Backbone:
């Protein structure tokens, strides 16, 4: 069998490529000419130069003779861009074209890497489940909104006959996080910057479990269904304490009061007008950091048999990869 993987040079995609190869599958990766290849080093996969926005004809040709398609490519670091035009073009328009191309190519399964973010923010004291829908204003969380819109496109494709299965990972932790998304906190911890934490929290999941969920979704996921791929629900102070411990540092000494967050968010907005997108956080992230965006991943464990890896195990694996590949001083 042959799998076609977009986003294969990224975090989830590269780990998925490694897992598929270990199962004896042939793997074709769609990658941009500018994409760094460090995450694919040592992996015997075919690569095609291209982009999810190249158009339906080019994408159909790229995935020819492939049985499974894993669409992991997306812009998730939206805060690094001054506008969100590219975010929606890649995450929504690109996904629509991928689905159209997959239908033309006659693939057996199309697994889409959505996000827990597409499900919105739960009421206090509740956990997100697969039936939840995006419930905040788009400008408050454009990444989540873009994933919500992409899922809507795929539900249309599923209704038209495309064998789509959607997976919704929470915050992914582990090796090969080359773009420093979630694992950026390891760099912050090493530099002693995690001395405070926001009052909220979210769900964190091992990249190994996410990869297992993708493959299980292709093998036995129900068409048109969503599956949350999640691990532990943790407060940010617990997460930062675990990251600090890897470097022999103390847990955060301050948990910011909720009333401070809007003030801090305003300060971040002002700072971004000076330093631009280089600032590793934006005001929208700050405001969301008061929420406890917890999730219930029991559906994926029961239906797909997705394993559970403790957060600290996944974090240490990410730390060791960063250490061994020069991401830490």
Residues:
């Amino acid at each position: 069998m042959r799998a076609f993987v977009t986003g294969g040079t990224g975090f989830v995609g590269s780990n998925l490529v490694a897992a598929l190869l270990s199962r004896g599958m042939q793997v074709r990766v769609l990658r941009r000419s500018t994409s760094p290849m460090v995450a694919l080093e040592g992996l015997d996969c075919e690569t095609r130069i291209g982009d999810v926005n190249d158009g339906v004809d080019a994408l159909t040709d790229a995935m020819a003779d492939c049985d499974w398609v894993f669409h992991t490519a997306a812009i998730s670091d939206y805060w690094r861009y001054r506008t969100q035009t590219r975010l929606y073009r890649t995450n929504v328009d690109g996904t629509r074209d991928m689905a159209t191309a997959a239908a033309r190519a006659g693939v057996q399964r199309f697994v889409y890497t959505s996000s827990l973010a597409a499900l919105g923010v739960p009421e206090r004291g509740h956990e997100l489940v697969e039936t939840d829908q995006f419930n905040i204003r788009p400008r408050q969380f454009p990444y989540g909104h873009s994933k919500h819109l992409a899922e809507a496109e795929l539900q249309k494709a599923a209704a038209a006959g495309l064998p789509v299965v959607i997976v919704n990972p929470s915050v992914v932790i582990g090796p090969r996080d080359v773009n420093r998304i979630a694992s950026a906190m390891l760099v912050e911890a090493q530099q002693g910057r995690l001395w405070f934490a926001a009052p909220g929290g979210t769900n964190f999941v091992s990249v190994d479990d996410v990869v297992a969920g993708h493959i299980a979704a292709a093998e036995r996921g129900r068409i048109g269904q969503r599956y949350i791929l999640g691990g532990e629900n943790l407060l940010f102070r617990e997460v930062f304490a675990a990251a600090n411990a890897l470097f022999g540092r103390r847990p955060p000494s301050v948990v910011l009061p909720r009333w401070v967050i809007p003030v801090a968010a305003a300060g971040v907005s002002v700072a971004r007008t000076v330093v631009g997108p280089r600032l590793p956080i934006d005001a929208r992230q700050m405001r969301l950091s008061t929420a406890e965006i917890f999730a219930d991943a029991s559906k994926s464990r029961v239906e797909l048999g997705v394993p559970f890896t403790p957060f600290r195990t996944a974090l240490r694996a990410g730390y060791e990869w960063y250490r061994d590949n020069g991401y830490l001083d």
